[in-house]
């Protein structure tokens, strides 16, 4: 199976500099343009189905791509972003730093769960389960719209690629064969 693993476009939370994660926000006008550009990059790739996170920003990205590629979309809740920010979720980062400097400091370690956050192990199990649901399907080529957190987890823990930087509407072309996920191509994703 060929998998185009994609991040959603720019969001209102991005430009407001908020802690996202479990925060529901929408694509900006630029985010919508990014999604259209991503759809054009994915044209003629024989994508049979789009799987998307249940978060609004991912669904909006998937809808734009679906409209252009004429492919059905299916929501996979396990692909949603991690609630890494707990009680800081939705706060503007500069305000959070002033009000909760100790919690903000802990966020630099992705394995630490602050108050109200989803722990890393549970998050990983959820993302892995979501990916397994998709790879078990009888499809040749799919597109997954998710978030920075799940994509970084997949690269770090499943592919053993290491840490990555990932831009809005970036994608990785992956192959799932012999119960193993490997990287074929990267667009907007770089190794740190």
UniProtKB/TrEMBL annotation:
Positions annotated as active site in the UniProt record? 8 (tele-phosphohistidine intermediate), 81 (proton donor/acceptor)
Binding residue positions for substrate: 57, 81-85, 93
Q: Which GO terms describe its molecular function?
A: phosphatase activity
Its domain of life reads: Bacteria
* Pfam families in UniProt: His_Phos_1
Give the GO cellular component terms, alphabetically. cytoplasm
Q: Which PANTHER family match?
A: BROAD-SPECIFICITY PHOSPHATASE YOR283W-RELATED, HISTIDINE PHOSPHATASE FAMILY PROTEIN-RELATED
Q: Any idea what this protein is called?
A: Phosphoglycerate mutase
Recorded source organism is Candidatus Amesbacteria bacterium RIFOXYB1_FULL_44_23
């Amino acid at each position: 199976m060929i998998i185009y693993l994609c991040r959603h476009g720019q969001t209102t939370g991005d430009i407001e500099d908020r802690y996202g994660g479990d925060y529901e926000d929408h694509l900006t006008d630029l985010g919508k343009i990014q999604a259209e550009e991503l759809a054009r990059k994915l044209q003629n790739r024989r994508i049979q189905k789009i799987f998307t996170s249940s978060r609004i920003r991912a669904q909006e990205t998937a809808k734009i791509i679906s409209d252009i590629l004429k492919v059905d979309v299916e929501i996979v809740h396990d692909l949603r972003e991690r609630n890494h920010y707990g009680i800081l979720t939705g706060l503007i980062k500069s305000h959070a730093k002033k009000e909760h400097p100790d919690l903000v400091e802990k966020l630099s370690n992705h394995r630490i769960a602050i108050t109200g956050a989803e722990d890393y192990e549970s998050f990983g199990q959820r993302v892995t389960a979501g990916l397994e649901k998709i790879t078990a399907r009888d499809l040749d080529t799919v597109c997954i719209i998710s978030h920075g957190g799940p994509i970084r987890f997949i690269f770090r823990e499943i592919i053993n690629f290491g840490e990555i930087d990932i831009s809005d509407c970036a994608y990785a072309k992956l192959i799932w064969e012999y119960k193993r996920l490997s990287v074929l191509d990267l667009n907007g994703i770089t190794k740190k």
